[in-house]
Amino acid sequence: xxxxxxxxxxxxxxxxxxxxxxxxxxxxxxxxxxxxxxxxxxxxxxxxxxxxxxxxxxxxxxxxxxxxxxxxxxxxxxxxxxxxxxxxxxxxxxxxxxxxxxxxxxxxxxxxxxxxxxxxxxxxxxxxxxxxxxxxxxxxxxxxxxxxxxxxxxxxxxxxxxxxxxxxxxxxxxxxxxxxxxxxxxxxxxxxxxxxxx
Length: 198
Description:
The protein is mainly α. The chain is built from 5 helices and no strands. 1% of the residues are buried. The model has no long low-confidence stretch (mean pLDDT 76).
């Protein structure tokens, strides 16, 4: 509803501007640049408001659909858990039917469950131990940015890091430049010697 109201408001403003243009003897060049810029600004802002309202409406319907889906998955999880309990009880009664004592049947099922739980816990612990929650690259970049913004006198750590990272590249470049100059000097010297002999 708010979208249609904004569109109606926008149409009313446009009609007012059209009436103003007719008051200038239907001469659209009589409007000032300021009026044109103001009109363009209003048009852009109303378009942006309408787009934002449309996006909100779309997101709202998508969130409602996602909420229903999550509710269905939760219900399915509850029923699957209850089914697992019944299956475990049935497994224990199956062991009883094979001739084991009831206490021994339920004990075997419980031990199997504890073994499975232990294996899952170990795998989960191993997976969590490799996870690094701390955003180290972001922290390092933020620290470098802070160091770069400080005065030059307090930047030895950043200077050392940059020297280590770019030092070998500079050395290679300077060696190449030196060898190029040496080759050029040797060629010039040979050319001068040839010209002198001739």
